[in-house]
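User: Modeling request: complex.
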Amino acid sequence: MYRYDEFDHRFVRERVAEFRDQVSRRLTGALTEDEFRPLRLMNGLYLQLHAYMLRVAIPYGTLEARQMRMLAEIAERWDRGYGHFTTRQNIQFNWPKLRDVPEILEALASVEMHAIQTSGNCIRNVTADPLAGVGPDEIEDPRITAEVVRQWSSLHPEFVFLGRKFKIAVTATEEDRAALAVHDIALQIVRSEAGETGYRVLVGGGLGRTPMLARELRAFLPKRDLLPYLEAALRVYNLHGRRDNKFKARIKILVHELGIEEYRRQVEEEFARIEHGHIAVPADELARIGAYFAPPALPERTGTPVEFERMKKLDPAFAAWAAQNTHPHRVPGHVAATISLKPVGGVPGDATAEQMRVMADLAEAHSADELRVTKEQNVILPHVALADLYKVYRGLVAIGLDAPNRGLVTDIVACPGLDYCALATARSIPVAQAISNRFADPARQREIGPLAIKISGCINACGHHHIAHIGILGLDKAGVESYQITLGGESTAPAALGERTGPGFSYDEVPDVVEKIVETYLKLRETPRESFLQTYRRVGMEPFKEVLYAEAH
Amino acid sequence: MPRLIDRDGPAEDRWTTLGADDALPASGAVIVPLDRLEEAVDAVFDSAADSGLELGVHVPNNADPLRLRAGFDRLALISVEFPAFADGRGFSLGHRLRALGFKGRLRASGHVIADQFAYLLACGFDELALRDDVAERQPVEHFLKALKRISAGYQRGIPGRRSILDARRAARQGTNAAPR
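Assistant: Request completed. Predicted assembly structure:
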């Protein structure tokens, strides 16, 4: 886990002081509201429907126990006792007061955290595989690259006032757990045929009102060229991306309008002009950062612990949770355990201060002091010994975070929607809660199998509905909430954007609609092993459409 | 409040900005609009008489730096328009002009706020001609203070600014990590 040195500490503290000064200059009128707005956004501060919202960066989704505890403290001291983990591996506080924000930022700085560039038209907080350092098939820990990019992109003088937001994600495995295809730039760590480690670079993905999947920009980029290449890619975007229309200002539109070949040509031309040695990360700096991500020392444990087997037999709920919420670990005798923030009927991604503290305690005692936040709005304990798993589970039962539903129908992703967000056109959270209650029975959830439902309360798609197996988009039709349904979206390769079923449905109809879709799938699947997505890819939209719109004909 | 500032504070503006119809003077320092550049270059460099005129050009932030490159040695100043502070194209344009070898004075003109001044200098600009309404609200001290707010950045290769990466290296090698 990365540690701030004196330079990082100073940088973050200076940034807090700068923001304090910006707030006071806003109050004297030296800065107009228009001028202040992007400055506060670049420090994570939004003005929402009822209050300010502070989005705190959790770089590449990695947290230590002391950091999670500080989030709990912030929730208690300056908010209403809870926080909301987001689809971009960050956390949002919904009720801070503007005058408290500099103090909150100082509290974050004390545990090596900040809210820099979690919003605004700049390079946003870098995301990565939440199972970094866990899987046996990983080429190297993607967080090394993510940290290099985090530093390089922090207040990059040339790229702080881009045409639009810019999101970068990093992975290092064949399986994509970071939704690479919907990022402005995605870096997949790969090995060349010669055995050299480098990056496959994708560009131009994004959700929002014009969803697009990223295209390959470079099949192989040597590691040393990373920053010069990113600089070239960003410069071409900054100079030529559209500025006439906010909704056409993302890089995906530039790539689409120029064509990937022409965009590539311009990037390569700029890349060739750049003096690489001036910009690139020196090898010793890369080694310094890399050392922080050395795998934790986990004692290898052969065989399955007796206690683990015994408790599985004694406590079937534990057995179900262990089967559904764990992931294999490269070190024998260990797993990564998902803490689902989706209790039946709960608010997806919300955690109370008490829950955060218990998660921190469990991480400290049983997971090498580490936690991860996922884009599915859950938390992972990445390094748990099987022998300790029951203790972890009991700890989660005590705080109501023992839902055995990772990847199942109730593991619903939802944006804050009309309950909080100034941009929302419809509610998301209550829709998620209603669906979750409808499918509350754990046996039924297991019977249905892997199914990703994601809900956005407006066209900006923070709920990632385009890449959901069942996507739900809440719109405002003449003052009434209307929900469009999409089917067949997928975030991992081969990624796909969901297709619309047809006309939207009312707020009250949504749980029935989802249930009809699920029942149709259960009837159509060839074997219980054929997942919803596989069935959809085999049979297509028609059978679902027929069921959903039968009465209209 | 002076309208022109550089990293040391208020600066005297010895340049006259010409409009579309203003006649070229015989001497002095003038900034012409981009569409009059050819005419001005002809007048200054190709006339038989040795002109005493120093030439600058004002360009929009979507100007093609490659097309300006041919005239670099004849231009003592390039002024880049910043139409709105949130339109950051000028930062990349400034960087590119420097990377392509422009050695004259680089000016930003328009809506730039105090908090952006350090970014301007880091992108190769020398000075800022402020818009009147910004100058009225934001005194020169705000701009100078803003320069000192962040003492070092994470990027490398930026002349005149301390790089955290290079400072770390220097510290590791036991040498003096003084600003470059």
